[in-house]
Every structure is written in C-alpha cells, then in structure tokens.
UniProtKB/TrEMBL annotation:
The keyword Disulfide bond does not apply. Keywords: Membrane, Transmembrane, Transmembrane helix. It comes from the Bacteria. This is DoxX-like family protein. It comes from Mycolicibacterium hassiacum (strain DSM 44199 / CIP 105218 / JCM 12690 / 3849) (Mycobacterium hassiacum). It is found in: Membrane. The keyword Transmembrane helix applies. One of its GO terms (cellular component) is membrane. Pfam families: DoxX_2 (PF13564). InterPro entries: DoxX.
Length: 149
C-alpha cells in the first residue's frame, strides 16, 4: 500500500506545484511522471536493502535463473526509469519501458501470492496487488501517451 500512497502523494504534490506556477509540472501527465518517479525510486532502492531484497529474491519464480541477479537488474532498471521520468526528453520512453517492466515482473507477485509461506513483506492478496498493478500501469500509460504530440 505504501507504493500506491507514494504514487498518489507524489502526483498530487507535483500537480499542486504545477498549479502554483511550476511550469515543468503544468499538466497531469507531468505530475504523474513525478509520482511514478518517486514510486520507482522507492521500489528501486528496496531491491538493494534487506530485508526487502531478500524477500524479492524469494519470490522470483523458480524457473528463472539467478534470482539475486534478476532482482539487482530490475532494481537498476527501476532507478534508471525513475530518472528518465523526471527528464522531459526521455519521459515517454521511460514510461513505456517501465510499463513493460511492470508486466514482466508481475508473475513474481502471482508466485508470491500462491506461496504457502510468502515473505512477510509480500503478503498482499493477489486481488489487491492486481488492482494496484492496474493503477501503476495506467499511470505509466498516461505519462507515455501524455508525451505524444
């Protein structure tokens, strides 16, 4: 839930700044980009800090090789994507890439939901996690489409 709150709070704060005259944040897609950047910065950092890193490694589906390396790679991609969202010329590409990354990582959430004893930080019910994922995907889509002129 904290990930969702970060997206929402970051977006609303950025939009308020836009309404107050910050030109960079003069549209909803720009504000959502900032909210997503905050969210992906937080989740990207979590890929490197225990206990969250350990939990993320534990939910990598068993058919995938080198879970620790995959968690490291996805963490780096999230952080690079967050930076790309903040920089206007790369915002659209970053949003599209993060959209694809979220789709690619979602099976780990399904796997975690079906584990008999998932890590404590991964106990969100699949229905709620799927709904949150839909919001995250819609936000990335709004940013990606918002940059197309």
């Amino acid at each position: 839930m904290i990930v969702f709150v970060t997206l929402l709070a970051g977006t609303l704060a950025a939009r308020l700044a836009g309404l107050a005259g910050v030109e960079f944040l003069d549209s909803w897609p720009s504000a959502i980009a900032i909210g997503l950047a905050a969210m992906f910065t937080m989740t990207g950092i979590a890929h490197f800090v225990n206990p969250r890193r350990r939990d993320l490694i534990a939910i990598v589906p068993p058919g995938l090789p080198r879970p620790a390396l995959l968690v490291t790679i996805t963490g780096v991609l999230e952080l690079v994507g967050a930076a790309g969202l903040v920089y206007a010329p790369t915002r659209t590409v970053a949003a599209v890439c993060l959209f694809v990354l979220m789709l690619a990582m979602f099976p780990a959430n399904v796997y975690a939901a079906r584990m008999p004893n998932p890590p404590k930080s991964m106990t969100t019910r699949l229905g709620l996690r799927t709904a949150e994922q839909g919001v995250f995907l819609a936000a990335a889509l709004a940013v990606g489409l918002g940059g197309i002129q």
